[in-house]
Amino acid sequence: MHDVVIVGGGLFGLVLAEQLATRCPASVMVVEREHHLGGLCWSRRHAETGVEYNPYGTHVVATSDPRVWEWITSRVRMVAYEHTVHAAVAGRLIPLPLGLEAIEAAYGRKLSPEQARDAVERDAAPYRRAPADSVRTLALAQVGPRLYEMFVRGYVTAQWGADPADLAPEVFAERFGISYRPSRGYHPEAQWQGLPCGGYSTLIEPLADHPRIEVHLGRNYLNPPRPRYRQLMIVTSPIDAHFQHQLGPLQRRSLHVHWRVLDAEDAQSTPVVTYPDGASPYYRSHAPALLPWNCAHGKSATVLVGFEAAGPGPNQIDFVLRSPQNVELAAKYAQLAAASNVLLAGRGTTFYDDMGHTIERALTLADRLVPTLL
Ligand SMILES: Cc1cc2nc3c(=O)[nH]c(=O)nc-3n(C[C@H](O)[C@H](O)[C@H](O)COP(=O)(O)OP(=O)(O)OC[C@H]3O[C@@H](n4cnc5c(N)ncnc54)[C@H](O)[C@@H]3O)c2cc1C
């Protein structure tokens, strides 16, 4: 029997496992349902094209937290990369998040930053009288109807499978925002950005490579025999499943990514493109050969492209909808968790944390747990 059991071999579980095994004498068992480590940020080499790719969709590290960046770069060499996501709108590729290029596309003319601000402010002002209690009302109040219709409504509906009027405003606040300047990339606020040289496995797999860490792949901890432990169990998988859905299931949305090898001339010219018009069968596509961790590949006649669409399918991701009902239900599950002797953490307990925040939370939890395990 191990001192600690960690359920989930994603980023959170593995950062925590590494910290506990290296900072105290505890033995740690990591139980992972899939047959690979890494959870959603897992990457691997595509057999046919030799391209490094994230099967669940492109993952880029972007952080301003010095502890997180120091932790990452002390374990793996990072390739510097300023990520840009483009929206395919009216036959053009417009960089996101919403900035001067998007405003010019919505208003159909060249604008200075001041003119762009004036135009958006004028159109958004009437919507500021309503309470900003949903994606729709917050987006209209911040960016006005033209940008909302062109960039927000179709994309949010396709990705979340819900009317923007039924989604909590945080979905817009976390994912969109607006600037009146030319684009400075997808993460303009991040101090450091990059990709692990050689893929996420070069970061992820060594974390579990410790004599006191034992990994069980392909094991669902909810199935008997349940893992036993001497001191502590930490669960990073969905919180409602852990409590047998006793308060009801959190409402989830499924996405999947279907990977295809295309002729190079049919492929997109930038790494990630979104399709906000709502008319496309997929709402985002990924071309990982264009990411700098694949630069050594040079030109090829074929290109790997991942098409991300709603619903179940290969490389499926299930995530909890941030609706007002779910926010309330998640808070009730958090109360159950607080009264439990099992610690719940990671993606199973949150609506969305990026990898930087995931690492930061795992390091902080380790700081709290290490003294109790010494
Ligand atoms: C589409 C998408 C794109 C993203 N892009 C980025 C990005 O570009 N940059 C960024 O910083 N972040 C990004 N993120 C966020 C990033 O994926 C998360 O921050 C990170 O993966 C969270 O790690 P985790 O370990 O908490 O969760 P997960 O990666 O979900 O790991 C949880 C693990 O638990 C396992 N598990 C589940 N149930 C069981 C069970 N019953 N028994 C045993 N094991 C179980 C799962 O298989 C999984 O391996 C993205 C997320 C999504 C959904």
Secondary-structure blueprint of this entry?
Elements: E1 2-7, H1 11-23, E2 28-31, E3 44-45, E4 52-53, E5 61-63, H2 66-73, E6 78-80, E7 85-89, E8 92-96, H3 100-107, H4 113-124, H5 135-160, H6 170-175, E9 192-196, H7 201-204, E10 213-216, E11 229-235, H8 239-242, E12 252-263, E13 272-274, E14 284-286, E15 302-310, E16 317-320, H9 324-338, E17 343-344, H10 355-373
Parallel strand pairs: 1-2, 1-11, 2-10, 7-13, 11-17
Antiparallel strand pairs: 3-4, 5-9, 6-9, 7-8, 12-15, 12-16, 13-14, 14-15
The protein binds flavin-adenine dinucleotide (FAD).
Overall description:
The chain is an alpha/beta fold and 374 residues long. It folds into 3 domains: 2-82 and 191-245 and 322-373, Rossmann fold, CATH 3.40.50; 98-175, no CATH class; 252-317, no CATH class. 31% of the residues lie in helices and 21% in strands. The protein has 10 helices and 17 strands. Strands 8-7-13-14-15-12-16 form a 7-stranded mixed beta sheet. A 5-stranded parallel beta sheet has the order 10-2-1-11-17. A 3-stranded antiparallel beta sheet has the order 5-9-6. Helix 1 links the parallel strand 1 and strand 2. The longest helix is centred in the middle third of the chain and has 26 residues, at 135-160. The chain is globular, with a radius of gyration of 22 Å. The model has no long low-confidence stretch (mean pLDDT 93). Bound molecules: flavin-adenine dinucleotide. The site of flavin-adenine dinucleotide (FAD) has 33 residues, from helix 1, strand 16 and helix 10. It holds the Pfam family GLF. It comes from Streptomyces triticiradicis. InterPro entries: UDP-GalPyranose_mutase_C.
